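On to our target:
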Amino acid sequence: MAKRIASTLLTIIMFLFSFSSIAFALPANVADKTIVVDFAEDGQDGIQTAINSILDLEESDKGGWTIVVGGGTYDRFTVPSALTDLTIQAAENAQVIIHTLRQEEPPVSRNDGGGINIFAKGTTLKGLTVQAEKNTQGLWYAAAINTHHEDSGGANISLAVENCTISGSGVGFGIMQDCPAFSLKGCVISGFAEGLSFYGDNWAVPKQGILITGNQFHNCGFAIHGYFGGSTENPGTITFEDNIITGTKALRSKVVIQDNSSNNSSMQVRIQDNRLEHGLIGLVMLDGEDEIVVNVLENNTFGENSFYVEAIYPGTIDLFTTYQSPPGSTGRWESYLTAGDHISSEQLAYIERVIAEANASGSTRLSITGIDAEHLVETFTRFKDGIYWVSEPPPSIPTPSPNPAPGENLPSPSTGSLTVTKTMADGNRSRQFTFVVTLNRALNGVYGGMRFENGVATFTLGHGQSVRASGLPVGTAYTVEEIENAGYQAIATGNVGTISWSGATASFQNIPLSIPSTGDMPRAILGATLIALSLLGLAVYHSRKSFIG
């Protein structure tokens, strides 16, 4: 009887483990079109292998798949045009690293940008960490993520990139968007010649628009740069909002959008609620009757060494290019231009004279009007790194009382900023935390990225995000609190302080609280083991009952 019980129990356990592998560890679930990539089992080419396995299916089965990628360091991959609506995403709490522009992995065709190549419609990338080295092979479209296809063009390509970290080594593009349908949300892009580059020679912005929101661009020559050249009577909108752009004093990070259409409008543009440090926003030829541009200076926060530029072809208005720093800012204009192929000695002398006159009058506005019509808007398109606004402290900064009374008016200029930043030690991007900023002044209204009611602002931040309040009176005391952070220990620096002219920063890092570990046993095996043990107990009970009876 004991042998029979043991044999039966062994059969039950084997069945349970078989069932658990079907339920929890099946690499490809045809029912919900999901493939799970495990680095330990599938190796560094596991993502491409998963893509290729979908390509082997019937045509009717190739759309709508999701590839969930476990933690590990993977080779770059290509999504061909035969696939549609494919999502490639990191597994929850997994760090998925993709190496691109590597010396040992040069492009293999004229349609290969040296990184992740996306040639399909409806592709989405989520939660990936894409690292780029310096191997551009001289390709103008070399990119960590590329949609440029010289043979087919990009009309049938669409891409969404969400919550990804894309880091470079000072060259190439972070994302090469050579397609009309595109979105970029919640990403951090740093260290590229151009973070996001787009070249829409043959199309206008589609009706659904292009959304670029909640991203951070750090130390890129251009945060975004490009144009659309197709013409339409009712173009869609490029929305660039709630982004952070930071450059350096030597090289400003630029947001530049141009309409390349000679007939009708290619786009409408909405640029708002962005925060710039050592950066500029430049719009070129956005003067069509169907093109609507919101007030850029009023609707964005321009920090140190940051300014706005508009450039128009001659013949429409008398100002070819207008540079303007934020109202109320103090500083000067500087020129780094030299005579060469794109500017004559006479033109250079004129520009230097205009700059000297503007600085002598303390003007925050610089208008270039005297360049000949043959050079069109070269005063900006060729001078993106040629004319800068350099912030300077005001001649004297009044010393406010250390604890001013609510509503007290300080002498001008007397404003500073408060930046709140958020990082997660475990890299969790799904969790949002609520923050409350309390001032000792009953301020009301929008100050940069924060809205205050009676001196209190409430907002949420996730991993890698930040928000900046600008225009706060110097001497204002503040307290920043993080609430509803169950499961985490918050380590805060600078969360209590006073606003100064140079600005204040409150940084929060959250560390997960330790919880009892169940070891490395997979959930499926653990569940099956518990069930088996229960059945073992029942079997022993019944065998004993039978024996006693």
